[in-house]
Amino acid sequence: MCGIIGYVGKERAVPIILNGLEKLEYRGYDSCGILIISDKKSFIFKKVGKVKELAEEIKDKKIDGNLGVGHTRWATHGGVDEKNTHPHFDCENKIFVVHNGIIENFFELKKDLENKNHKFNSDTDTEVLAHLIEEYLKEMQFKEAVLKALKQIKGTYAFLIGSLEKPNFLIGARKSSPLILGLGENEIFLASDPTPLLKYTNKFIFLDDYDVVFIEDGEFEIYSLLLNKTKEPKIEEINWNVTEVSTSDYEHYMLKEIKEEPRAILQTVAPRVNFLKKEIEFEELEKSKDKLKKIEKVVFVGCGTAYYAGLYGKYLFEDILNLQVDAEISSELRYRNYPFNSKTLLIVISQSGETIDTIEALKKAKEKKVFSLGIINVPGSSLTRLVDVNLLTFAGPELAVASTKALLAQMTVIVLLALYLAKNKKTALPIEKIIYEFKDLPLKIEEILRRENEIEKIAEKIKKFNNFYFLGRKFEYVTALEGALKLKEIAYLHAEAYPAGEMKHGPIALVDENFATIFINPYNSLFEKTKSNLEEIKARKGNVILISDKEENDVFAFFKIPTTIEIFYPFLTIPVLHLLAYFTAKKLGREIDRPRNLAKSVTVE
Ligand code: G6P
């Protein structure tokens, strides 16, 4: 949600800012704007619509400034129109601001400023900051005015702030919304995440909450509003491949990312499995062994697809470890009075590491001294800095709004962690066999992905339906949830998931010849039970689409998956449903990578 990019250096800022905005598109937005400042002149362009259209408008103009900021806006306060598009200015049109987040006390601040004769041009919360700085400038210098103004702001923010009169000066500030600093050769970048900067640098500083960075004449300084003093910067490297942030030869990021699912698993497994010793090694957990031994309860928490990974974790941990396990939705958990204690292990799951509800749920749990692990994909993101220990997923950057390969990587860490915690414990599961199966799993997924044309044919058959059930039991209920969410998200088709056994308690009332039901029913211990539900749907003329390793001809459509051990079936069935959602959406002409109303990184509550 909202993307921010800023540049101060020796190069022309225009292509850097436009390219950056394009790379930030995946976060979700409805309008965009850029500002370029040179010694002599400044240029502002705003567009309701796509970055491509903004670039088209600018392309023939001679714009030479070396300082630029860009913003993709996902509307919160004020409609989607040009006047609300960032940057926003003070009364004199000199102080500029772009913002990601929400200023919660903007109404009071605005009223107060209006009483002091400030004239507002937009309906946004953001604009108040420019006027507040203008107000304080009457009695102090620019930097002091900015710090004083930021102290008045309640809510969340990542800001870029500057003045049209200062072509070598840019300020960044963060509280709860992401903002990072990228360090190039004689150039400094600010951005919402590393994706738009990988082309220029692998050196980053991840700003903490209440950090304000002042960039002036090629130098920077970080001031903490929390500590009331300047801070030593901590430079970190991210070695993501630049090609990973392009669609390469694929038509969509989503397809590319589904195709990368086997690699996401391999990369996540490789540093943690010793196949010779048949052992799981988590270097990250070396120092926490004693803490982990005392754990009596595990809670997984996440949003959307990351929550489903948590649900998978719950079922798996219950099978492998003799522990009480819960899987919770962050936006609910944060408001509940959950009985956390020092013997609870909280496992936080997030692709982006920036989902605000998950951040807040973690903060609340931390107040009760809970020990936390993070299963997070973006190194240096907010959550990675809040959890006690990071068990990173190595899925590489994920840019399509709908999460795909990150889920497989999250489930991989969960299996590895369960096996690690099961060491020296009695468990009925064949641990060695599970470890060994990790070798074959990516190959089996490759095989499924190679048969994409079969899935495309099923998409052609199902695209005519408007309503879908996704049914499965236990692990495959998780698959069902993920399949239904993906179809909703990118194909805009109504889809609901139920545990197959629950279908009789209400949902079946809707089933008729116009209804499609997708059964995920591998040939495992629950096969026969789910098969009965399948027959019940068929008896009511429902159209059954079956995913299984046991052949079945008498259904509307069938896809055969390879065979694996029970806990690993979701690793095979989920890629099928990812491709099914992808092809159905494509056939319906949907905008796959950036579906309407959705955002990849949900940084507002
Ligand atoms: C958004 C995305 C989902 C994602 C969820 C959680 O809703 O559209 O694909 O699963 O956020 O995101 P996270 O980055 O925390 O995994």
Features:
single chain; 605 residues; alpha/beta; Glutamine Phosphoribosylpyrophosphate, subunit 1, domain 1; Rossmann fold; 3 domains; eight-stranded antiparallel beta sheet; seven-stranded antiparallel beta sheet; 18 helices; 34% helix; 24% strand; globular; binds 6-O-phosphono-alpha-D-glucopyranose
Task: Give the tally of structural domains.
Answer: 3
> Can you count the helices?
18
Number of beta-strand segments? 27
Mean pLDDT: 93
**What are the bound molecules?**
6-O-phosphono-alpha-D-glucopyranose
Shape: globular
- The largest sheet has its strands arranged as 3-2-4-1-10-9-11-15
**In which range does the helix fraction lie?**
25-40%
Would you kindly provide a written description of the structure presented here, covering whatever features stand out?
- Helices cover 34% and strands 24% of the residues.
- It is an alpha/beta fold and 605 residues long.
- The protein has three domains: 243 residues, Aminohydrolase, N-terminal nucleophile (Ntn) domain (Glutamine Phosphoribosylpyrophosphate, subunit 1, domain 1); 196 residues, Glucose-6-phosphate isomerase like protein, domain 1 (Rossmann fold, 3-Layer(aba) Sandwich); 143 residues, Rossmann fold.
- The strands form five sheets. Strands 3-2-4-1-10-9-11-15 form an eight-stranded antiparallel β-sheet, with helices on one face. A seven-stranded antiparallel β-sheet has the order 5-6-7-8-12-13-14.
- Strand 12 and strand 13 form a beta hairpin.
- It starts with a strand and ends in an 18-residue tail after the last helix.
- The mean pLDDT is 93.
- Bound molecules: 6-O-phosphono-alpha-D-glucopyranose (G6P).
- 6-O-phosphono-alpha-D-glucopyranose binds next to helix 9.
